[in-house]
Write a structure and sequence with these properties.
140 residues; five-stranded mixed sheet; globular
């Protein structure tokens, strides 16, 4: 159930396409936008990492909540498909998140460790790391 830092880094690298580093450029069809000719659009894939603490029974519920929240936040940009990695060891989970952020630097990963209300009722604690790949257009 618990994943190592290198495993999560491997998963993030699978989400970021190679062209991201070469900055793939998509030339739009010959239309002019506000007088600019043949605008160049670059798609950047950004991976957002969040971690949530909750209790074991609440995990499925937390996944639903997070999926909904991410879709609200990013629906205008792209289809969002978060990937969940469950943890039973909270210290390990926090260490993995901090290690991943240190590995990529803060520009690549936004890390939040959120606490779900279910944590308070004394059941066995669990949590999940959530990776979300977001493709953002920008003008080159």
């Amino acid at each position: 159930m618990d994943y190592s830092k290198s495993h999560i880094i491997e998963e993030i690298n699978k989400l970021i396409p190679d062209h991201n580093f070469k900055q793939e450029q998509i030339i739009t069809s010959g239309k002019n936008y506000f007088g600019w000719v043949r605008e160049r659009i670059v798609w950047d894939t950004q991976v957002i990492i969040n971690a949530v603490r909750c209790n074991e029974q609440a995990l499925p519920d937390v996944e639903k909540k997070i999926r909904f929240q991410l879709e609200q936040e990013f629906r205008s940009i792209i289809k969002v498909e978060p990937i969940f990695y469950d943890y039973s060891n909270m210290e390990l989970m926090e260490g993995v998140v901090n290690g991943v952020v240190a590995h990529y630097g803060t520009h690549t990963a936004v890390a939040d460790i959120l606490q779900d209300n279910s944590c308070k009722d004394g059941s066995k604690q669990a949590g999940c790391i959530v990776l979300t790949a977001v493709r953002l257009p920008r003008i080159a």
